[in-house]
Amino acid sequence: MTLDTSSRLGVDALWPLCLALVRARRQGAAFSDMQGALRWQGEGGWALGRGWDAQASELFALLKPLLDRRAASEPWVLGQLGQSLDGCIATRSGDANYINGQEVLTHLHRLRALSDAVLIGAATAAIDNPQLTTRHVPGENPVRVLLDPDLRLPPDLRVFADDQAPTLLACDAGRQAQAVQRVGAKQVLAVPGLLDAQGGVQLRPLLDALAQRGLRVLFVEGGGVTVSRFVQQGCMDRLHLSIAPLVIGGGRPGLSLPGGTALRDCPRPPGQVYRLGADILWDLDLRGPCA
After folding, report:
1. CB of 129 closer than 8 Å to CB of 151
2. 269 close to 236: Cβ distance less than 8 angstroms
3. How far is CA 215 from the centre of its chain?
4. What angle do CA 207, 211, 213 make, to 5 degrees?
5. What residues have CB less than 8 Å from 223, skipping those under 6 apart?
6. What average pLDDT does this structure show over 275-283?
7. What string of H, E and C letters represents the secondary structure of 202-225?
């Protein structure tokens, strides 16, 4: 791609570079930008060259942790939750449509395009019946993973039949035969050790199983129980928390974590704040030093 450097470069010029970089990562190939719009800084990861406008620079800063992933790196997990001012991700009945605005929706589709796989829990899949595609932005659809250790999901969900992207039903290896009977062997990811002796879900074996398939960059899109479980087990590297100017009152909570007895015991992960339309996005580094 030839870049016109006579004027400031914007998001429309940055996004194709992001996609090309991620495509090279997935193929295990080296990415080189002969135009100098992006440059590799070793441990510092990717950096923008000169000539970018403020909007492109801000978007790059938000996406940089994803773009810095390498082909042979350890599994890396980004989670997201969209919530109201009072910390709810849905009403009591489970209605979560349009908590956040169009800008956040576009952001979610960008995260899907830059990730190897997108994962949701069984409750979110059953209520929303989502497509989990990148239809709002240019970019390839990720592999879709439905975490359903209890095999609660019906086989007529759209992701199992629409042929838009590969779909994996993640269950414990002990329930593989039942899962195959429901959705077919091609769409089953049977994970040894996903359920422990008490029936609790263990996420590290799942991350290892996905990595064996080359799916090392995972986007956990919801819901609250699933994202909370990843955080509790130390399996999430970064969290995007989008807060809408909305009060739900008595709805379904977002993060649910063991609380400290005093504020000084509560973690304060480092983060950056971004404005997405009327919403505020917190980009939280869960591996960074807490204040």
Report:
1. no
2. no
3. 12
4. 125
5. 81, 89, 90, 96, 120, 121, 123, 124, 252
6. 97
7. CHHHHHHHHHHCCCCEEEEEECHH
pTM (predicted TM-score): 0.94
Give the domain ranges of the chain. 1-72, 74-285
Decide: 153 and 123 in contact? Cβ < 8 Å: no
The residues, ordered by sequence, that sit 6+ positions from 88 with a Cβ below 8 Å of its Cβ are 248, 249, 250, 251, 252, 253, 254
CB 13 within 8 Å of CB 22:
no
At the topology level, CATH places domain 74-285 in Dihydrofolate Reductase, subunit A (3.40.430)
CB 80 within 8 A of CB 111: yes
C-alpha torsion angle, residues 111, 117, 121, 126 (rounded to 10): 90
**pLDDT band with cut points at 50, 70 and 90 for residue 2:** very low
d(CA 245, CA 131): 26
Backbone angles phi, psi at 28, to 5 degrees: 70, 25
What is the Cα–Cα distance from 99 to 88, expressed in whole angstroms?
9
User: Residue 1: pLDDT band by 50, 70, 90 thresholds?
Assistant: very low
pLDDT digits (tens, 9 = 90+) for 245-278: 999 998 898 998 887 678 888 888 999 999 999 9
Q: How far apart are CA 170 and CA 121, in angstroms?
A: 10
List pLDDT tens digits, range 65-114: 999 999 888 999 999 999 999 999 988 887 877 899 999 999 999 999 99
Residue given tokens 């997990």 in the structure block: 77
The single-letter DSSP state of residue 170 is: E
Cβ neighbours for 253, distance < 8 A, ≥ 6 positions apart: 87, 88, 89, 224
Alpha carbon 210 to its chain centroid, in Å, reads 14
Tokens of 260: 């400290």
